[in-house]
Amino acid sequence: MEGTALVARGSSRSSANEDLSGRQKVAVLCLALGSDLAAQITQRLGTDEVDAISFEIARMESISPQVVETVLDEWLTRILVADSLAAGGLDIAREILEKAFGSRKAQQVLERIQGQLHTIGLQRLRNVDPRQMATLLRGEHPQSIALILAHLEPQHTAAILKDLEPGLASEAIYRMAKMEKVQPELLNLVERSLSQDTDLTITSGLSTSGGPAAVAGILNLVPSTLERALLETVTERDATLTETIRNLMFVFEDIGSLDARALQRLLRDVDVKQLALALKAASGDLKTKLTGAMSQRAVQALNDEIELLGPARLRDVEAAQAAIVAIVRTLEDAGEIVIGGGEDDVVL
């Protein structure tokens, strides 16, 4: 490859980077950083590697700013990923950049790379079909599964949990509930490891962190039978943690705790057929509370629908209940209803 071919100004950043070999990238980096810093890098290499890099430097006629920026971005990304596993990576990158380009330019470069890392963490995995994702995760360590599930959308995670073995799902949920902040660089590392050499089916675009609140939000979206099974296993490990999760959850029966105005607002968005199906496994108290918020005509329509319904599969009933709970959550997020207000809470 001729030196001028490395720096074709009409090429894109990504294609320019892909055209470079590993040695050529190191050569570009050394030229960009200057002789003093390049010496610090190459002194860690073997004689053959230094000779090869020196050869690449000698044959490069010129380097476009586009190529330099692309190589620099890749180098920084690797350092920042390593920083999630061993302290000092970010500090080392900052020190080198400041010596090479000055503090202002160094800060700009670091901010750009860190922003990119925040954006792309687990991005591919967020769009994988849930069933395929469950298959992909079955051979992974529960901690890795917890890390991934904690940073997917709740609906996506709930769908994946349905297809995981109960024991593995329970272990992942427990670890997810105990999880604290995770650096985005580590997410990139997990994504690369998990998706490497794997043909992932990308669906339409579907992040949350771990902790009890995240787990509660996910369990609100899974069938009640699966919810109970998962929480029972967590209880065996940490009963206090389970209680914390339960206190953060909102399940179908909790609809009865909504005030009359909130119930009326909810019922406007719920299809009568869906409500009839959901009520097949509801308590008498909840049915009374719901019908009390409905007009006589609406109650009659609901009763007629229940009579026409006949026997129904439990999973269909649970799916209808989960769908209504999702509507409740949507209305709460929009500020149209209030969930969990106590007697002393005042809504203005």
Describe the structure.
The structure is a single chain. This protein is mainly α and 348 residues long. The chain has three domains: 3-120, no CATH class; 125-248, Flagellar motor switch protein FliG, alpha-alpha superhelical domain (Annexin V, domain 1, Orthogonal Bundle); 252-333, Flagellar motor switch protein FliG, alpha-alpha superhelical domain (Annexin V, domain 1, Orthogonal Bundle). The protein is built from 20 helices and no strands. Helix 8 (130-137) crosses helix 10 and helix 17 crosses helix 19 (296-309). The longest helix has 20 residues, at 314-333. The chain starts with 12 loop residues before the first helix and ends in a 15-residue tail after the last helix. The model is unreliable at 1-17, 81-88, 117-121, 197-208 and 341-348 (pLDDT under 50).
* Overall CATH architecture of the largest domain: Orthogonal Bundle
The percentage of residues in β strands lies in under 5%
CATH class division of the largest domain: Mainly Alpha
So, the CATH homologous superfamily of the largest domain?
Flagellar motor switch protein FliG, alpha-alpha superhelical domain
Uncertain segments: 1-17, 81-88, 117-121, 197-208, 341-348
Task: Summarize the main sheet.
Answer: none
Tally of alpha and pi helices: 20
Average of the residue pLDDT scores: 75
Number of separate domains: 3
Using the CA coordinates, give the radius of gyration. Answer: 28 Å
